[in-house]
Amino acid sequence: MTAPTVSKTRLVLLASALAAAALSSACAPLVVGGAMVGTALMATDRRTSGMQVEDQGIELKAASRLREQLGDRVNVNVNSYNRIVLISGEAPTEADRAAAERLVAQVENVNRVINEVSVGFKSSLSSRSNDVLIATKVKASLVDARDLISNAFYVVVERGIVYIMGRVTEREIHRATEIARGVAGVQKVVRAVEIISEEELARITPKPPANK
């Protein structure tokens, strides 16, 4: 089944909902991805359904450990894609930043941790709201790109820095990076992806049903 097209209007409405969620929690992940738009789009995720569930489990376990060990003195967001875990946000000291990485790396099934936590004060509510809006604009721009499958990308934004996750080809990530850099408010684009070949992409891309 082909995933429904998501309009920019719907994504903007989603941004408002996400902004409210982000403002209500110091550790709310600022993410706009296919799975967050709706379950119908999960069918186009390049992870297996089992891996999607596993990634969700990693995020929950990691977030729980961070709360238990570091409390509310840090603002660390956890996003896992195919067992590659991106941690972002803020920690008051370098020791806390290193501790956050260590705690997440110890979670079962984590293959690699990309530590993008900055040392400093927690971001403001307005900064987090702005990040959600930037993420929505990036995702909307990816949806508009006819040469990309937007749901292949998992977008995280912190302090205007766009992190792109997913299982994509070199061609796709170069194009997505170009698009993200053109969005107003984006300070930098960081690639946190797993590169696959064009052959692998062809193998995992669902084939349209044959005409009878």
From TrEMBL:
Keyword Signal: yes
Signal peptide residues on this chain, from the entry's feature table: 1-28
Protein keywords: Signal
InterPro entries assigned to the protein according to its UniProt record, in alphabetical order: BON_dom, Lipoprotein_DolP, Transpt-assoc_nodulatn_dom_bac
Residue ranges the record marks as coiled coil: none
Residue span, BON domain: 54-121, 130-197
Species: Roseateles asaccharophilus
Record has Signal as a keyword: yes
Cross-referenced Pfam families: BON
Domain of life of the source: Bacteria
Name recorded for this polypeptide: Osmotically-inducible protein OsmY
